[in-house]
Amino acid sequence: MTGLEKLLVASVAVEVGLTFWLLFWLGRVRWQAVVNEEIHIRDIALDASKWPEAARKVSNAVDNQFQLPVLFYIAATLALVTSAVNLVTVALSIGFVVLRLLHAWILVTSNNVPRRFQVYSGGFLVLIILWAYLVADLLLLR
To answer: Whose CA, among 77, 108, 114, 119, lies 20 to 30 Å from 66?
Structure first.
């Protein structure tokens, strides 16, 4: 495996790690909310909107990890299996993951919606560029 391929795999691993970390954090904040009697199980059995704000923020961050990142995982896999890993695909991948980390941080802390939207949009744009580059490389440049 080349150094660039390792960097691509590392960026995927960081994104996966973010998802696992958020899932563990979600379990912790929900458990604490129940133990501290901030919420009763019957109140959230069918409706997650009753969780305390901190738990809802982390839950939303978890949900977000199954939106754009899914397309990133597919792009990274496509780049690896087609030998399309190069400096451009790696730089775009790292940029996407950095923006996802920042997005999750904003969401679970200040939840500043305009800032969060800017970061989300930046990640979305980077992902579009990654996909456009991969498609052009695989279908037009080879």
So the answer is: 114
CA atoms within 13 A on the CB side of 88: 14
Distances (CA, A) of 130 to 32, 36, 37, 83, 99: 40, 45, 46, 15, 14
Q: Which amino acid is at 28?
A: R
Give the model's pLDDT for residue 45. 87
103-124: per-residue pLDDT in tens? 999 999 999 999 999 999 999 9
Q: What is the CA radius of gyration of the chain?
A: 18
**CA separation for the pair 24, 18 (Å, rounded):** 10
96 phi, psi to nearest 5 deg: -60, -45
pLDDT in tens, 27-72: 999 999 999 999 999 999 888 899 999 999 999 999 999 999 999 9
8 Å CB contact between 89 and 123: no
